[in-house]
Write a structure and sequence with these properties.
125 residues, alpha+beta, 5-stranded mixed beta sheet, 3 helices, 5 strands
Length: 125
């Protein structure tokens, strides 16, 4: 069980799977995310955290993603704030980043799945 008191800038409900209501975030990821948030020094709006393997986005994949292990999140961010957040993530050794900055949907995906067997990845849309 994760001790949410160690992550004062986040609440458990922010990371709950929208499909199952479960929350299985990994402490290693949350520790890194808290350090990122402290350095970023601005609120971080999580729009997706843990996803159960039965979540429609995960179930549609050939191989489930790092969200299913609690090793990833998507952050609602845009413009200069997105660039600042990306810089911090890269400086902290995050090797799996996704950038979606189209229309009204603007977010950055970060994960540490490469530490658990997923390949290094960088994508944008």
């Amino acid at each position: 069980m994760i001790d949410w008191n160690l992550y004062p800038d986040f609440e458990p409900w922010e990371f709950v799977c929208s499909h199952t209501g479960k929350n299985a975030m990994h402490p290693e990821f949350m520790e890194l995310l808290q350090r990122i948030r402290t350095e970023y020094d601005r609120p971080i709006n999580i729009n997706s955290g843990y996803r159960d393997k039965t979540h429609p986005l995960e179930a549609a994949k050939d191989t489930t993603g790092a969200h299913t292990l609690g090793l990833a999140c998507d952050i609602d961010v845009r413009g200069q704030n997105a660039l600042d957040l990306l810089r911090i993530c890269l400086n902290r050794g995050i090797n799996r980043l996704g950038v979606y900055q189209q229309g009204d949907k603007r977010w950055i995906h970060i994960d540490i799945g490469d530490r658990y067997g997923y390949p290094i990845a960088l994508w944008s849309k």
